[in-house]
Write a structure and sequence with these properties.
mainly alpha
Length: 500
């Protein structure tokens, strides 16, 4: 058994597995079936078009069968004329009009966004502006504190862009108003709307800034912050999805794995080192804090900060830079130890509504991809992953035994700083209890001595009083009777006798 554990090499994930399965060079995502944002959207659009064509073909087939059956019932067994079956059925006219209306609406939306920075968009008539406002829902007058603050920051940022900034603000407000009417859409459709707006906005900004990607990214960060703060309550963990159910399943799964130790995951982290323990605590805090942020970029920043603390803990422990094989097991351990709230919903929220450039490349995309891999590993973690027997794994999962409660036979001694500090506190409390008992015993002894001393003093005083009784003789004359020179004193000092 020990030889098998000594031969264990730990968790290993090849870096190529983090990339898109299409081979485009960007990072993939488990939520997108291993594809990057760009490839996933292309596959999604193709699948959507195929579904529309299949639905159309099925509708035509059903309509032809219905007309054929109606014609046969009215004219016997004669077949309907070819000219009648070849034409578009009248009952499909509403369906074709719906498709035409849907296409026109999408084209109108793209055309509106493409009017950025053009003179025609700035010289629009007041009548068109009034009509657009009348058809769009009004923004609530009272916004939350965060929404109000972000709106003011967004306006201040766009002031530096002058006229283009006003157009960006206008289109962003119109988009938010339009999204308010789409609450019944599914999560994928909401994500598609937001990603389309990002893409169109980014294309127009690239044209305006003449290909300066840094300026475009800076503006898009502010656009994302403004839009997603305003839409957060309606798009985070929407009711049309099962995100909440999966959150509970993930949370229960992590709770059931509370017994997994650093040694089982082969994590090169020594929590006895104060700096390492501090980095571990900061990493746990960051991944928990992710749920309190509203903007996808800010949630990614929490993941990045958590990952950097993990790298620092590994570097201090090993005395050398950490590798990817060291990072992923450590990240898994941090997730198990932190059990972040609404972990699945946060990952889905970032996946659906973050700007694609941040997830496809850069350190944010790399760390986020590793987090997705860590969660997927936790969901599939079994006895083989921890080099345990199936029987031991089931006993640990059921809570019958704990790997830390097997005494010397336990091959994974746990000596984390939290447990060590707990033992030190227990020893200190035990010593304080002993000292407190000693103080109480001394106080009781002193109290007994004081009582006995008081009684002894009382007896001695009584004996002296009995042996030498006090006699008080009555007064026979005035105090100054023997003073013959009293008459020589000045009048104020001469003794006077008052009749009593």
């Amino acid at each position: 058994m020990m030889s098998q554990r000594s031969e264990r090499r730990g968790i290993h994930v090849d870096q190529s597995e983090l990339l898109c399965k299409k081979g485009c060079g960007y990072y993939g995502n488990a939520a997108w079936q291993g594809l990057c944002s760009k490839c996933w959207r292309e596959e999604y659009q193709r699948a959507r078009q195929r579904q529309i064509q299949e639905d159309w073909a099925l509708a035509e087939k059903l309509q032809r069968e219905e007309e054929a059956a109606a014609y046969a019932s009215s004219h016997g067994n004669q077949a309907p004329p070819r000219s009648q079956t070849s034409q578009t059925p009248p009952s499909l006219a509403p369906f074709s009009k719906f498709e035409e209306k849907k296409t026109n609406e999408k084209t109108r939306k793209v055309t509106t966004v493409k009017k950025f920075f053009s003179p025609s968009s700035r010289t629009a008539s007041k009548k068109e502006s009034h009509e657009a406002k009348s058809h769009s829902p009004s923004i609530p007058r009272q916004l939350s504190v965060d929404s109000d603050r972000v709106s003011r920051e967004f306006v201040e940022f766009l002031k530096n862009l002058q006229k283009p900034g006003r157009e960006i603000h206008k289109q962003s407000r119109l988009f938010i108003e339009g999204m308010a009417t789409k609450k019944d859409l599914g999560a994928d459709e909401l994500s598609e709307c937001v990603q389309d707006f990002y893409q169109n906005m980014s294309d127009r900004l690239l044209s305006h800034f003449k290909g300066s990607s840094e300026k475009v990214e800076r503006v898009m960060d502010q656009v994302e912050k403004y839009i997603m703060t305003r839409l957060y309550k309606s798009v985070f963990c929407p009711e049309t999805t099962d995100d909440e159910k999966k959150d509970l399943a993930t949370q229960h799964r992590i709770r059931a794995l509370h017994w997994v130790t650093i040694q089982m995951l082969c994590v090169p982290v020594d929590e006895e080192i104060p700096e390492v323990a501090d980095s571990v605590v900061k990493a746990i805090t960051d991944v928990i804090e992710m749920d309190s942020r509203r903007v996808p970029r800010d949630k990614l920043a929490c993941i990045t900060s958590c990952s950097k603390h993990i790298f620092n803990a590994i570097r201090v422990t090993k005395g050398e830079p950490a590798s990817a094989d060291d990072f992923l097991p450590a990240l898994i351990f941090i997730v198990l130890k932190a059990n972040p709230p609404r972990l699945y919903s946060n990952i889905q929220y970032i996946t659906r509504f973050c700007t694609p450039s941040r997830l496809m490349a850069g350190e944010d995309g790399y760390y986020f991809t590793n987090l997705c891999c860590a969660v997927a590993f936790i969901e599939k973690l079994d006895a083989h992953s921890l080099n345990l027997t199936p029987e031991d794994f089931e006993r640990y999962m059921s809570g019958q035994v704990s790997p830390r409660g097997q005494g010397e036979a336990c091959p994974w001694p746990h000596s984390g700083p939290a447990l060590s500090q707990l033992h030190r506190n227990l020893e200190l409390l035990s010593s304080l209890e002993t000292r407190q008992q000693q103080v109480l015993d001394g106080a009781h002894s002193l109290q007994a001595e004081l009582c006995s001393w008081q009684e002894s003093v009382g007896r001695e005083v009584q004996e002296i009083l009995e042996k030498y009784p006090l006699e008080i003789k009555p007064r026979t004359s005035a105090i100054d009777a023997d003073n013959v020179e009293s008459d020589l004193l000045p009048p104020p000092l001469q003794p006077q006798v008052f009749a009593g």
